[in-house]
Amino acid sequence: MASISKRGKKWQYRVSYKDNDGTRKYVNKGGFPSKKAADIAAIEVERQHNRGANLDLNKITLIDYWDKWIELYKSGKHSRITEARYKTIRKQLLAYWGESRELKSISKSDWQAFINEFGKKRAKDTVSKLNGYVRSMADSAVDDQIIYTNFTHNVVLTGNEGQAGIIKYLQAKDLRKLVNYCLEFADYEHIAYYIIATGALTGARYSEVLGLTWDHVDLKKRVVHITRTWDHRYGSGFAATKNKSSVRDIDITIELADLLLRLKKEQQEVYLAQGYRDSKQLLFRSIRHNMLSSTAINKDLRTIEKALDISPAITFHGLRHTHVSYLIANHVDINYISKRLGHANTMITQKVYAHLLEDQRKEQVSQTLQALSRL
User: Is 211 inside a domain boundary?
Assistant: First the structure.
């Protein structure tokens, strides 16, 4: 039941309703320019209630709903890195919207204004990811009947393209120098050399390489099984792969299989001398039984690059890009490359490595025209 009254020069409504426990509650709102406007708004509130909307959530703020959504659907279900990202997004939302902005008051235009502002100093990919997370949250709010349309849908994403489309990788001659160096000089005191060679020859992510255990390496069939990762950022141990498609088998070369066999023998000798037993059977635990951080491995990689006069230098993740670059240059099928990388589909691979594939396309066009000219 709604009542309409005038307060000063503005109109307000008061809607009474009973919650699920039978307790009578009220929704009040003022500031309407006319009695008719207040009446229309009150009718809408009653309509929402009749449709099953939770009016207790009707005034919930964006930040409070974000917290509620994270707690219900995300907390404890993802890696610590992903959960840290949720906290970062919360800070970004709070900085713009504040603590008191009601979720239902945000229109598509409001959200577009935020995206425009947010994208001024950020990469477009960062803007896209934030919008994606909030879109999922807003979908939940629609289901809860707090809002009736998702204000993030069809928003125009802004942001700085910057270096987003540019990936750093080694040329084939530098890749060859790097791999040969690691193959020659790797020993258990220089565990980084084993790790770098494995990354370069598999294209696996750093966390995936660290997560390898001896029961997931078949040196006879020359296959490594990627089923989990190692949390090198927080040191919490094994973690899930980035996504389902990241669980995969990667074929390895004879050279890498021989290198890993050498590592296994060295590791067994060192552990025996130390009286140490690794219950997790990790491949790349150091001589001091720790796992190298990404900072440490990148430092070792830069040292090798400098010694070999490799420029520009890349990070460990650049080995993944280098791996793909080399395969594309050697005309390896994109479907196989995509599966080898653990991408969900070839569209992801094509998007990330578009410029490399374009170079290949131009070469194929040239070869095609030359072949036709010989008719």
Answer: yes
In a domain, 166, yes or no: no
pTM of the model: 0.70
What domain range is 6 assigned to? 2-50
Q: 46 — phi, psi (to 5°)?
A: -65, -40
Q: How far apart are CA 292 and CA 210, in angstroms?
A: 9
Local structure of residue 230 (DSSP, 8 states): E
**How far is the C-alpha of 257 from the C-alpha of 222, rounded, in Å?**
6
DSSP characters over 66-123: HHHHIIIIITTSS-HHHHHHHHHHHHHHHHHHTTT-BGGG--HHHHHHHHHHHGGGSB
CB crowding 118-146: b at 16 or more within 10 Å, else e: bbeebebebbbebbebbeebbebbeebbb
- Rounded to 5 degrees, φ, ψ at 10 are -115, 165
| 115 falls within a domain | yes
DSSP secondary structure code for residue 8 in this structure = T
The widest CA-to-CA distance across the chain, in whole angstroms, is 90
Name which of 20-29, 53-62, 160-169 the model is least confident about: 160-169
Determine the Cα–Cα distance for residues 75 and 123; give it in Å rounded to an integer: 26
Tell me the CA distances in angstroms from 15 to 103, 105, 183, one per residue in order.
20, 18, 76
Higher pLDDT, 350 or 209: 209
End-to-end CA distance of the chain: 86
**Residues whose CB is less than 8 angstroms from the CB of residue 83 and which lie 6 or more positions away in sequence, other chains included:** 74, 75
CB 249 within 8 A of CB 224: yes
Question: Are 177 and 254 found together in one domain?
Answer: yes
Domain match, 97 and 188 both: no
Confidence of residue 164 (pLDDT cuts 50, 70, 90): very low
Radius of gyration of the chain (CA): 28
Report how far residue 295's alpha carbon sits from residue 125's, in angstroms, rounded to the nearest whole number. Answer: 24
Give me the CATH number covering residue 114. 1.10.150.130
Helix (H) / strand (E) element for 134: namely helix 124-143
